[in-house]
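Please, structure for the following, as tokens.
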Amino acid sequence: MIRVASVPESHVYVRHLADPDGGGDVVRLPDPVPADGRKVPGGWWPPLMLDPGWISRHHRDFDVFHIHFGFDAIDPAEMKDIVHELSVRGKPLVYTVHDLRNPHHPDPEPHLEILDVLVPAATELVTLTDGAAAVVDANWARIATVLDHPHVVERPLIERPRPDSDEFVVGVHVKSLRANMDPFPVLDTLARTVSGLPGARLQIDVHDEIFEPGNYWYAPDAAARLLQYRDADCVEVRVHPYFSDDQLWDYLSSLSISVLPYRFGTHSGWLEACHDLGTAVAAPTCGFYSQQQDCATYGFDEESFDATSLDRAIRTLYGSETARATWDARATQRRLLARAHHDLYERALSWRALP
């Protein structure tokens, strides 16, 4: 049995690395619960395992330390201390490179400084696409094992029929306008495109916290601009709190297309959820979304925006059937991922055992 301290264990990506039939030779430690009980979508926050003191106290409880997410607030010096403590305790580090560029950071440097610690120190590296693996190789001369992203939505919803609708709904969820989102050129183009498609509607969703003075995400100018889209006949703007998981799956299932308005990024769990539910995706050309999952693409990055390609992507999807995940395919994928991670951990342990 290989005991893995996964950071964070409760994140859906990590949970769905296990064989869906149960069993296997990998057991993951549950996330320690912070004293304040704070939890965000994806797990307890902050992940208490990401601490040299926790590693020192609990190193006998795990064999491998596997980092996925949760180090946004950790500086390079702290990460070096974490890596050092793992080395002192003889524990191999596995790191999955989900993000080459942190979608929450307007400045790429803080995340790159952490990668400059983690990537060279890891005994084994994983990433989700060949493109990301090529960047890891080019920047750090390290080889990352490429493994698929597992399903995000649970089996009953993957197998549930999509709701019947005669509407063609193009959705853009701007959430709380995190750093990598630049929705306005995307929305301006979509409003024009949708107005020329019979039976089509643009639905814009946004979290209510951007309207709340004193909130960290308060953005009055952007909020006012978003509300102006209500003046268009074919556009609906919905303001609401964070969706629960059930509300999010219902929302995604109600869309014909989900458009990702990102100027930078790498991979996406949102994209996988759409595939699980049979919702088409139009993704930007930044990052490696189209390598991760089948989707339409349009030109969008930190340097440029191609309105023509977005219009073309929507019109192409308007006349196309959308491929949807099946549970059989997702279950098979999970069995392969479970075996691949077991082998990865065995390799990490064998490397650490060498003199």
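The mean pLDDT is 95. DSSP finds 13 helices and 14 strands in the chain.
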